[in-house]
Write a structure and sequence with these properties.
By secondary structure, the protein is mainly beta. The protein has one domain. It contains two helices and twelve strands. The termini are far apart.
């Protein structure tokens, strides 16, 4: 357990966009019995009172780079509990200004093969702070997700985020050009419901 970064979320685009790896278990699952006490102490176990599940967030093993300061970032997770998992998700979160209660940056997400953009500031988003993506999802491999982030001065940055692995999960992000992202992301604008 040495060397783990005991946080729920880890930077992909500085503090503006972070990723966490969440595993969901039945409440009281035997697999949870042998979990390192640091998970509880560091707030990585979530037991919603009105739900029949327990969510466990994995600490990162390694973080390399940042899409904010350079072209790419990589976060490595090694799930401690591979057995008994109902499902796994990547949880992306963005920075909320503590004074205003509003997001620091406008951002939306999209995937190839989907009709429209989604998440965060998208017209169809249910949560402006979090975006949950099934891992690996309906396909045997995680489908990359693209982000459009508005910077100071109005310019946009585009990111591609993808993940792979089973026992070791790698989440990687990199900056990409506008012509590499889904058209729905290019068309997305602040305040538009497209």
């Amino acid at each position: 357990m040495e060397g783990k970064i005991w946080s729920k979320f880890h930077p992909l685009f500085g503090s503006d966009l972070k990723v966490g790896f969440e595993m969901t278990f039945s409440k009281g699952a035997a697999a949870l019995d042998g979990l390192n006490p640091l998970y509880e102490k560091r707030g990585l176990i979530h037991k919603p009172l009105n739900e029949t599940v327990t969510r466990v967030y994995e600490p990162a093993v390694e973080i390399l780079g940042s899409c904010k300061d350079s072209d790419g970032a990589q976060v490595l997770f090694e799930p401690a509990l591979p057995d008994g998992v109902l499902f796994r998700r990547l949880i992306l979160t963005r920075k909320i200004d503590h004074h205003s209660g509003k997001p620091r940056r406008w951002m939306v997400a999209a995937r190839y093969g989907e009709v429209t953009h989604f998440g965060f500031d998208s017209w169809n988003s249910k949560d402006q702070r979090y975006l949950s993506l099934a891992y690996p999802g309906l396909n045997p491999e995680f489908v990359p997700v693209y982000f459009k982030i508005q910077m100071e001065g109005g310019d946009f940055v585009y990111l591609e985020v993808w993940a792979w692995g089973s026992d070791k999960i790698v989440v990687q992000g990199r900056r990409v050009r506008e012509n590499e992202v889904p058209e729905s992301l290019i068309l997305a604008r602040h305040g538009l419901k497209t």
